[in-house]
Amino acid sequence: MQSEIKIDLYPEFGLMMNGEAVYAPGSIFEGDVTIKTETPLQKATLKMLFIGAENIRPDIAAMSGVFLEQNPFFAVRTMLVGKEGPSEIAAGTHQYPFAIQFPMINYPPSFEHSMCKCSFRLVAILQVTDQPRQYCERQVRYIPYIETNPLKSHHTITSQNCSVTLPSLSYVPSDEIPISYDSSQHGISAITVKLRRRLSYGVEGTINHIDEYVFQTETKFHEPVVRGTTYFELPEILTPSIDYSDCMAMSYTLEISLKRSKFLGCAVQLKVPITIGTMGPGIHTPTELKPYKKAKPGTPSTRNTVPSFVPRIEYEDCLPEYDECRLPDYQVV
């Protein structure tokens, strides 16, 4: 019987988004590799790898004359068992902890599409003499720091005697966007708001585009209205806008359609490019943060441009675990 191997991440690390831990530049995350075996494993080693890479579909890469469809950001490793040579793992269940810290580098975000993807994955490899290697993988979700800069004044666009006004041109997922509309000559019977995402992908000058509608809403009025405000809530899970990846770019546009009551079948179309960020309005990125393209591995500062395995954090000074049946016994200093 082969051994069982799995990777677990501790939930107390990272930012929880939609029930999943998400990590950013500078984040530390911890976990362990669990090995369960019914018999002792002789001359065993357990290796842990952390790999970040962009991938473009092979046929797309070939059209560009590029035959390597994977563009790695980094690949780091450590030995959890067998640092000094193969060791014996006794029968039973064993946990081998690890901790990893991201550098202050704005890598492209975790993203997966049929044409391209960006992934960060942990790989555990158990090697036992005279036995096939065993592998276990675990995806790690990563988001970069993308600022959302507030405007000094609202942004207004006008077309065919209709106008819409937005308070900002940059938002974060789950934001509710107030969209004010005005039709000075003819009443509006319906408003449709769509969020369009453009994915640009390719390498070596061969760029393709895919436009997809991520979310949309429609508001209909019983009586035509001249002006008012509608609210458009962004989805909670939304890949941020990026333009610094080597093989893909992500941009967003709000498409607002105003249907006027006296013009059946004809609506005024207004388009507003917006930025989807990861930081609240006015919050700036850390001063030590480096753009990915300016901090690629292979430079003299490589040690600071790739993730590193670090000592685990010890919680010696934590308060006692809360028990709802009684108050914790806190030591008075």
UniProtKB/TrEMBL annotation:
Residues 162-279 form the Arrestin C-terminal-like domain. This is Arrestin C-terminal-like domain-containing protein. One of its GO terms (cellular component) is cytoplasm. PANTHER family: ARRESTIN DOMAIN CONTAINING PROTEIN, FI21816P1. GO terms for biological process: protein transport. It comes from the Eukaryota. Residues 19-147 form the Arrestin-like N-terminal domain. InterPro entries: Arrestin-like_C, Arrestin-like_N, Arrestin_C-like, Arrestin_domain-protein, Ig_E-set.
